[in-house]
Amino acid sequence: MKLEFIDIAIVIGYIILSIVIGFWLSKRANKNLQNYFLGGNQLKWYYLGLSNGSGMFDISGTAWTVTIFFVYGLKSVWIPWLWPVWNQIFIMIFMAVWLRRSKVMTGAEWITTRFGSDKGGRLSHIVVVVFAIISAIGFIAYFFVGIGKFAVTIFPWDLSLTIGSVLIISEYVYATILLLLTTLYVIKGGMYSVVATEVMQFFVMTLACVAIAWFAMNNVSVGQINAAVPNGWFDITPSWSTSLDWTGVFDQVNDKISEDGFGMLGALVMMMFFKGIFSSLAGPVPGYDMQRILSTQTPRDAAKMSGLTSLVLYPPRYLMVAGLGILGLVFVAPMMKAGGGDLDFEKILPYVINNLLPVGLKGIILAGLLAAFMSTFSAFVNAAPAYIVNDLYKQYINPHASDKKYIRISYIASFGIVIIGIVFGLFSGSINSLTLWITSSLYGGYVVANVLKWVWWRFNGYGYFWGMIAGLAGSTVKFLFFPDTPDIYIFPIILIMASAGSFLGCYLSAPVDDRTLIEFYKNVRPWGWWNPVYEKARKIYPEITKNEDLARDGINILVGIVWQMTLITAPVYLVVRHYQGLIISLILFAITSTILKFNWLNKIKDYEKI
pTM value? Predict the structure, then answer.
């Protein structure tokens, strides 16, 4: 890439600023583990919300979203339900409050408040720690590969080097440098530096997103978009079939639709909704999202922080997605067709940056994209060592060490995880499928056990452990024997296997002891099948009340999903200049925001009455 001095200065200045902020805050972080991993629970919820939104602004995911927007048009807004994107709504409505009431440091430590410290509790605790660590390593490997490929498109210098007889290509050198620089400021300043740098990175990314949208709207007319897409591309309705036929426009895109398996979009949306309910009820996986919830000052702040995450994440992200998408349709698609129809959508981003952006704006966009990489990576680097130090070293190896000792161990753990992730990334060609198996299998097996832990008093540590193992086994069967089948279609089978493991493990062992259950229920107060525990708790705490908010939470979740969708559709309609859709989206946003203000925000309780 040919960069002018001002563009290079903007990118390098951004990197230096990130490191300076991390070191500047290091004194506040090094007082104790609570400060280091949770910011001493003194960080404002709105800073944590901006940080969480920044950490979720995954540029690889954004590139995939540009691809599906290119291919499916407005219908593409439904496809991220595969994850599902609206698990943040469940967290915002009630899950964040339940988690924060536990007053723990990590998701694994939370498990001990639910299942106790007997053998079943220890097994459930260990499986969560393993889940968190392996997931972090797998994602770091992907970040290593992704940021290396991105860096060689930004910087004009060839950093390839030879060690002995081994040639290390330039993208690996860039990736190693950037990952280690990011790790340096993360381990120095802990959660303080992660949040501070991610807030700064959020504003850099938002500026880049707005700039992309502005540039696209000024250089692509509505007529050009209409000429570049097939009939039905602007239709947002999730009809039974996608109803998109690219024949005569870009024939090879029809093959892409067939390969994706999204042809029956209406049926897919129904299945995604079914899966999404279970996945979202399970709560956040043990990682950076959970660490920010546990870092808030109060349970109410945790809920507000989670709501702010959606509010600040989706509008700028989809301004960028729509801007890159229409630039790709008008300027990159003809180039792809001229090259024989090669559907390499990764060409969209570098082509736009190299050939369309003016000096200065190019540096801002590159800094914004680099910020997206670094913020997501730093979130994982901060979260994973908390499990190693607090849940392994402190729990099983050295429970009476000083805080300084624990923080030094966290430094070693951070570098260790990053180095292992880099090694995985270096051999990504041979271990790519293995890494995919680790991450997809662990997530596939996560759902059932983590739903039951919230809503059913009889569920115990053995049920949790065997439910996770059975879910892992089901996902492994899918990987080995049905590798090309989309996960959504195999999900019911995995659900059945995980359910069998959960119920058998539970019923073949004793319940959790009454003292653990009563204290958990007193603090967290979930709704669900908790009446036997409630009756026992009343004998100790006569004024204790039940959580009667299930119906209201359910209504707020449905309203919240619509609210979140408007945050996605409004910027897309703006960029493609379909103003009727924009107006409808804004009206729905206003209505749903008003409902949530009075039926959710005004009724959040830090703690239930005892």
Answer: 0.88
